[in-house]
Amino acid sequence: MSSEIQPAINRSTKEPADDIHPDGKTSQPLTPNVKSPPDGGWGWLCALGGFMLHFVAVAQLKAFGVLLPVLTEEYGTSNALTAWANGIANAAQLMLTPLATALCHRYSYRTVAIPGAIIAGVGMSLSYFATGLPFLYVTYGLMFGLGSSLVVIPSMSSTAEHFDRKSSIALGFCLLGTGVGTFIWPLILEYLLEEFSYQEAFLICGAITFNLLVAAGLFRNLNPKTSLDSSDVEIKISDVEISKGAVTQAVPGTVTKKPRNSILNKPILDKRILTDTSTILFCVIVFFVQIAYQSIFILLPTRGEEIADGDGFSAATLVAIIGLSETIFRLPLSSMWDISFLRQPSRRLVGITVFVFVMGVLVLLNPFMSNYKLLVINSAILGVATAGYMVTSFIVLLDLSGVDLYKDALALRLFASGLSGIIGPLITGGLLDITKDTALSFYFMGCSCMVCVVILCVLLYLRKIKSNDHAVVLVECEQHTHSGVYKFHAGNSVHEDDN
Questions:
Q1: Domain assignment of residue 180, given as a range
Q2: C-beta of residue 280 within 8 angstroms of C-beta of residue 412
Q3: Helix, strand, or coil here: 246?
Q4: What was the pLDDT predicted at 10?
Q5: Are residues 100 and 43 located together in one domain of the fold?
Q6: Is 218 domain-assigned?
Q7: 85, 60 in Cβ contact below 8 A?
Q8: Residue 132, burial from CB neighbour count under 10 angstroms (0-12, 13-18, 19+)
Q9: φ, ψ at 489 (rounded to 5°)
Q10: How high is the pLDDT of residue 342?
Q11: Do both 147 and 183 map to the same domain?
Q12: Is residue 206 part of a domain?
């Protein structure tokens, strides 16, 4: 992937390079109609749509705890079974993003996002009729989760396409919607449950969810899809037809259009992303960090009850403190990566390593906090670290994959998050059931973060080796150019042209 001596975000690492001639001149690019990112313009509206998505869909799921005791009482079920409605929605929202990516490869972002917004709104509204958990699993869990997943990929990918130097602050603005919504949605749900029944609350939440249609209407492809693309065109030169490597006889000098393949015949993800070691390794890191990140919000209220000192703090206060810290620091911590000194990919990778390390230390220290005040301080600092990790992870992912494969890498990252959302609470909750204490669960989460720090250090070392190798290639190219011989290195192949 791109090294330190290249721009911070290599927007064409996966695209064909321009033709290079021995005299130092470059020919016209192979894709002359591809627009350069404007670093603004309509991109800010894409970022606004991303903010709305995270506010309406992602933050709404985080506030499910307000509904939990009401639904448990109404349905006469356990907390664990009732919470699975939220677990299914989270898993569907994250793990179905590869489907959204496959659709985005074929259709425009807006075409994919608008049906998703409708499905999410209908699913939430139909929860009005839920009289038991099975129906809620389908409407709130599967339908709302699937619909919002179809909006997630278009929101982040369209924003990334429109920005280069300001990509960090743009993506940070998108993610800021989660922090703001984490505060507002619990207040909204508490008010609705006081004034209306839980069924009517679902109906009103469904009406709010339909505002995702506004967000979907803001998404726009920087380079719109055309009726002819590389998979649909057969170029016929002379009496030879060239089509995806196959050579057959053809009518001279014509260009024909092949029938479009069905979406079912196309791969869900671009195959190149599955062979990108750095991106795959980073998604493994995300999986283990997310186990800790998602379990923190589940266990902190219980941890608060263990040492409650009667000073008027509720168990949910600790979660609110983390949310407040995240809201304050998400945008500043994301915008700092646009500073010229920090734009190098390796320095951003160092940054996320530091954030994960601080998360691990604070989680490991949590059981040693002997009173509520220390726990509040721990939670406040932890919110800063989690904010830094969350925004930087999306920026580092863009550095690793390049913008043309970002939607594929994003799908893998979100899939890993969804998988950890299913496995993590089962492990940490199981440890809590066995020990009747949160300490062992916090130790497990802290160790999970520390394992990721080690893997991140390995990833930094591998990128350093690639950076050194690339620098050697550039020096050799420059020496041969001055000597009148052009030597171009592409992998293991070498092409020489003597003048």
A1: 38-226
A2: yes
A3: strand
A4: 41
A5: yes
A6: yes
A7: no
A8: exposed
A9: -95, 125
A10: 84
A11: yes
A12: yes
Alpha-carbon distance 464 to 458, whole Å?
10
Q: Which residues pair with 127 in a beta bridge?
A: none
d(CA 303, CA 367): 8
Express as a percent the part of the chain with pLDDT over 90.
25
Residues 188 and 321 in one domain: no
Structure tokens at 198: 């839980």
Q: Please tell me whether residues 120 and 256 are part of one structural domain.
A: no
Distance between CA 334 and CA 377 in Å, rounded?
23
Per-residue pLDDT of 316-344, as tens digits, reads 677 778 878 888 888 888 888 878 888 88
Whether 386 and 293 have beta carbons less than 8 Å apart is answered as yes
Q: What is the DSSP letter of 477?
A: H
pLDDT at 214: 94
For residues 281 and 293, state if they share a domain.
yes
The reported pLDDT for the residue numbered 415 is: 87
Is residue 395 one of the residues assigned to a domain?
Answer: yes
At residue 210, what is the residue type? F
Span of 60-74, 240-254, 420-434 with lowest mean pLDDT = 240-254
pLDDT in tens, 429-459: 778 778 878 889 899 999 999 999 999 988 8
Cβ atoms within 10 Å of 423's Cβ, excluding its own = 14
In our burial notation (b when 16+ CB lie closer than 10 A, e otherwise), range 308-324 reads eeeeebeeebbbbbbbb
d(CA 57, CA 414): 15
Residue type, 384: V
What mean pLDDT is predicted for residues 74-92?
81
Quote the mean pLDDT of the chain.
Answer: 77
Q: Which amino acid is at 83?
A: A
Domain CATH code at residue 323: 1.20.1250.20
pLDDT band per the 50, 70, 90 thresholds, residue 19: very low
- Pair (145, 204) in one structural domain: yes
If one counts the domains in the chain, the total is 3
Position 68 confidence tier, pLDDT thresholds 50, 70, 90: confident
Q: Smallest Cα–Cα separation from 480: which of 494, 460, 464, 466?
A: 494
pLDDT for 447: 93
Dihedral angle over CA of 49, 52, 57, 61, nearest 10: 140
Residue at token pair 């192979």: 30
Residue listed under structure tokens 């907390």:
79
DSSP character for 36?
P
Do 216 and 87 fall into the same domain? Answer: yes
* pLDDT for the residue numbered 213: 94
Rounded CA-CA distance 105/103 in Å is 5
